[in-house]
TrEMBL record:
Residue span(s) of domain Glycolipid transfer protein: 20-163
GO cellular component: cytosol; membrane
GO molecular function: ceramide 1-phosphate binding; ceramide 1-phosphate transfer activity
Protein name: Glycolipid transfer protein domain-containing protein
Protein's UniProt keywords contain Transport: yes
Record bears the keyword Transport: yes
A matching Pfam family: GLTP
Keyword annotations of the record: Transport
Length: 206
């Protein structure tokens, strides 16, 4: 079984009410951290940021697990009571980081299906960063990320890691990845709409 072929790492199916289960979402997000590990030690900054935002959401959830089963419940609580900003800030930045990962992986899938995957993953990382996180970061962070991207593994080395030592070809890894990304996309769409609804997704840079 490939890394993305395991059901335990997938994001939850969005409910009929259009809600995302917080517990399952955070479990899937922790698996994304394991993927970031595959990109090398220089990505520890990204890993640390994602972990920190997962922890903020977990902390919010733990205050009332019965009440905070979905993201909207947490955002509504913070809007009404103004007691914490774990969901408002932690959830927003986790969403943005996951969007970066989503675009990066989608770029890989697209290039493979076009029949000519390059060994260098740097263009994919740069494109994903430019489309997602770049506008939220200050100049220093932007430059730092440029350096981090240079150290990304090659296509071949990453495919080897994602195969988990199994005798599978790139095609199988990409097929599993497509299934994974389909569900991830629906989760991110729900979160994006929520942060727009609660007027929390600004272009302010940090």
């Amino acid at each position: 079984m490939t890394f993305f072929g395991s059901e335990e790492i997938r994001f939850p199916v969005v409910s009929e009410e259009g809600q995302v289960d917080v517990v399952q979402f955070l479990q899937a997000s922790r698996q994304v951290v394991k993927f970031i590990d595959c990109l090398g030690t220089t990505f520890k900054i990204v890993k640390s940021d994602v972990n920190g935002n997962i922890q903020k959401l977990q902390q919010k959830y733990n205050t009332d697990p019965e009440k905070f089963q979905n993201f909207e419940a947490m955002l509504e609580d913070e809007k009404v009571n103004n007691n914490t900003d774990f969901a408002k800030v932690g959830g927003l930045w986790l969403k943005r980081a996951l969007q970066f990962v989503y675009v990066f992986l989608s770029n890989m899938v697209e290039e493979y299906k076009n029949g000519s995957p390059r060994e260098s993953l740097q263009p994919h990382i740069k494109k994903a960063y430019d489309e997602t996180l770049h506008k939220y970061h200050n100049f220093i962070t932007q430059k730092m990320f440029t350096v981090v991207a240079i150290t990304a593994p090659t296509w071949s080395s990453l495919m080897k890691i994602l195969s988990r030592g199994n005798d599978v070809d790139d095609e199988q890894i990409i097929k599993d990845l497509e299934v994974y990304l389909d569900v991830m996309a629906t989760n991110l769409d729900v979160l994006s709409n929520l942060y727009i609804k609660y007027e929390l997704d600004s272009n302010k840079s940090v």
